[in-house]
Amino acid sequence: MMNILLPTDFSANARNAAAYALQFLKDTACNFYLLHVVPFPAEKLGAHAMSMSPEIRGKFDELLSWLGSIKTNPEHHFHVCFKADYLIEAVREKCSEKKIDLILMGTKGATNNQGAVIGNHTSDVMRKVKCPVLAISENATFKEHKEILFPTDYKIHYGSRMLRTLLNLASLSNANVKILEIFNSEKEPSPEQIENRDFLQDSFSPKVPVLQTYYSSKEHNPKKVFVSNRNVDMIVLAAKNLNLCQKFLQNDQDDHIPFINQLPLLVLHG
């Protein structure tokens, strides 16, 4: 039984993420914890903030009814959670209390800039909560994950816990992992990078991941790398490397790679 946290602000993006979760985990028994956070500590809002308002209760009831109508696995169970607190503190608390295996949320909420690829709240959760996060675009529609792209510069060591999470999620749809090596100059990889690369590749044994090498010193338009990865179904990053690929995830005026903004993004800790 997996424990999945679904933060929700009842936006269309959050609803799409919940629907994606049900399809992604359609063959896995799960407890889904639907968490709505009023982003202020209760002591500043007064005692009434500790209880759920009728308006929020109504939104939860509507969401639960809709989820019940689209679920296909009888072993999918939904639990309502409400918290008046800062978002990060509320998510951390729920992850610890419910032993959460995966946070699954929309890339943007109702209040975020429409031009942003990843909203502030989702970015904060990715960076500050030590739990795997799968972020789903408002434009994403579920399809089986057959190829997962893992960009890395090998400048961090990947822990066994982090890689175990990736392999477990990849196994849900028997997906292959493709490693995109990113080097800044032809002097790389350094001995430390080689050591981290060897450990990473050994972790996938007996499977041998496909490798693609990219030198930022030679190619000044990093987005071109995705043109050769049109079959990718998910991007996975280590939280410590989140800055590494922000430029890849920006898709301001490049009509050749609109699919980047539609791919689910898995961020791992460990």
Can you offer a commentary on this structure?
This protein is of the alpha/beta class. The chain is built from 8 helices and 10 strands. Helix content is 31%, strand content 23%. Strand 9, helix 8 (246-249) and strand 10 form a beta-alpha-beta unit. Mean pLDDT is 83; it is low at 253-259.
Secondary structure tally, helices:
8
The end-to-end span amounts to: 22 Å
Helix content: 25-40%
Coarse structural class: alpha/beta
Mean pLDDT: 83
Spell out the helices and strands N to C: EHEHHEHEHEEHEHEEHE
Shape label: elongated
What Rg, in angstroms, do the CA atoms define?
19 Å
Strand content: 15-25%
Counting DSSP E segments of at least 2 residues, the number of strands comes to: 10
Multimeric status of the protein: single chain
In the predicted model, the low-confidence regions spanning at least 5 consecutive residues are 253-259
- Strands in their spatial order, largest beta sheet: 3-2-1-4-5-10-9-6-7-8
- What kind of sheet is the major sheet? 10 strands, mixed
Concise description?
By secondary structure, this protein is of the alpha/beta class.
List key phrases describing it:
single chain; alpha/beta; 10 strands; ten-stranded mixed beta sheet; 270 residues
Write the layout of secondary structure elements.
Blueprint: E1 2-7, H1 12-24, E2 30-38, H2 42-45, H3 54-70, E3 76-84, H4 87-98, E4 102-106, H5 120-128, E5 133-136, E6 147-152, H6 160-171, E7 176-183, H7 191-203, E8 210-215, E9 234-238, H8 246-249, E10 265-268
Parallel strand pairs: 1-2, 1-4, 2-3, 4-5, 6-7, 6-9, 7-8, 9-10
Antiparallel strand pairs: 5-10
